[in-house]
UniProtKB/TrEMBL annotation:
Entry's transmembrane regions: 265-287
Family, as annotated: Belongs to the ROH1 family.
Compartment annotation: Membrane
Name used for this protein in its record: R3H domain-containing protein
Gene Ontology cellular component terms for the protein in this record: membrane
Key words of the record: Membrane, Transmembrane, Transmembrane helix
Stretches with biased composition (Basic residues): 203-213
One Pfam family this sequence matches: ROH1-like
Keyword Chloroplast on entry: no
Membrane topology: Single-pass membrane protein
Domain of life: Eukaryota
Length: 415
């Protein structure tokens, strides 16, 4: 199914989102629950929505937030999902009919045009996570080989070192292919969410049941096929950098009279558009994507309560991308940086024809091997939760857009 063809997705009642939000709020270490507001007007509700968005973005800037790690990126998507559900509640609230009248109809339509573009980003990010899984396999081989000795005091043998270097060399080639090839493997393996064939073995947590697009087809069958039946979601000419610019470029700032006329809903739409861009920008920065690029500019008026945390978050990600040791990285994700560092250090220390290794080099290699083990475990624990959040982002955008379009298509006063 093409990612931007949301009209083929069945509408889902608003109540169906309750289960997702309950699961999000179950972990108080990741997100904060907010008391249910009791606004006296639509304007109060819109203001409360903006304050909650500001709070969620500010929490992501905490000193211990570990910017752009797997755990932090999962929290970022938690914040987005909460914001989108609150936004839905505003649009479907007592003033829902305002969404079909000027000026709100134009602003809502603009937001959903941008949101549809984010669906392709979700697919590209999902493929990027799959690529990181492939990297982890090579990393795990090197870690297992270097940690396999039953005697921790015994020096590493030649066979161990050569096998580990082979795995790390393969890993380096894969990462260079992605970095220098404008997406590399990612650009050739994009797929939509879910399984394309009931005979294909589930990937990851195996959720999602999207239809195949007519262009997807079957790329292989049987357990020995590396490329299972995939649904192609973006073309090879697709660009994450251009998509970011389309999502955030020219975001329409509501005029004061529009905010007043819509009971504050115009400012809520603008808020949700800015949050969508910041989340998309962070995902492209962190995860390997086809034609990554962070040139998209972000600037918002300072009179919104969320303006400062949103701008600070954008600036910090840009600063991270400009660091000398991150400029040529496949992604700014903390764990990707750890993969690059561990691989580089181990390749350097084991670049020798002397076996067994000298005592100092052997100690360093075994210490680096333990770092590899930790990185592998971090990836194992963090990739699946993050992918689930990307899936939920995809599905919730589709459901929200479908329901709003259904709502706007009804005659006034119809149930």
């Amino acid at each position: 199914m093409p990612a931007t063809d949301s009209s083929s997705s069945p509408a889902t009642p608003l109540a169906s989102i309750g289960r997702s939000i309950r699961s999000l709020r179950r972990d108080h270490n990741q997100i904060h629950s907010f008391p249910t507001p009791h606004p006296h007007s639509d304007l109060d509700a819109a203001d409360a929505f903006q304050r909650r968005a500001a709070k969620l973005l500010s929490d992501l800037l905490a000193p211990d937030g570990d910017l752009l790690s797997l755990a932090w990126t999962t929290r970022l998507l938690d914040a987005f999902l909460l914001c989108l559900v609150e936004f839905r509640a505003l649009l479907f609230g007592p003033g829902a009919d305002a969404a079909s009248r000027p000026p709100l109809d134009r602003l809502v339509a603009d937001f959903f045009d941008r949101a549809v573009k984010a669906l392709d980003l979700c697919n590209a990010v999902r493929d990027g996570l799959d690529l990181v899984r492939q990297w982890r396999k090579h990393l795990a081989i090197a870690a297992a080989v270097l940690s396999a000795s039953t005697d921790p005091t015994a020096p590493l043998g030649e066979a161990q070192i050569r096998r580990a270097r082979k795995a790390l060399t393969d890993l380096t080639i894969l990462m260079l292919d992605d970095r220098d090839g404008g997406g590399g493997v990612v650009g050739q393996r994009n797929r939509s969410f879910g399984r394309a064939s009931k005979d294909a073995r589930p990937h990851g947590h195996g959720q999602g049941h999207h239809r195949r697009s007519s262009s997807g087809g079957s790329s292989g069958s049987g357990s020995g096929s590396h490329l299972r039946s995939l649904s192609w979601s973006v073309s090879r000419a697709w660009s994450a950098a251009r998509q970011l610019q389309a999502i955030g470029g020219g975001l329409p700032v509501p005029r004061p009279q529009d905010i007043t006329a819509t009971g504050g809903l115009a400012s809520a739409v603008y808020t949700m558009g800015a949050v969508l861009f910041i989340v998309s920008f962070a995902l492209v920065a962190a995860i390997p994507c086809q034609d990554r690029g962070l040139q998209a500019h972000f600037s918002v008026p300072r009179n919104f309560p969320w303006s400062d945390p949103a701008t600070t978050l954008y600036d910090r990600i840009v600063e991270e991308s400009k660091k000398k040791d991150r400029k040529n990285s496949c992604g700014l994700l903390k764990e990707i940086h750890q993969i690059e560092l561990c691989s580089r250090h181990l390749m350097h220390v084991t670049d020798t024809a002397e076996f067994p290794l000298p005592k100092d080099k052997d100690a360093y290699a075994q210490e680096a091997a333990q770092e590899l083990v930790q990185v592998c475990q971090s990836l194992k624990d963090g990739l699946d939760p993050l992918e689930r959040q990307v899936r939920e982002m995809f599905h919730l955008i589709v459901r929200t857009r479908t329901e709003i379009l259904d709502c706007l298509s009804r005659p006034h006063g119809a149930e």
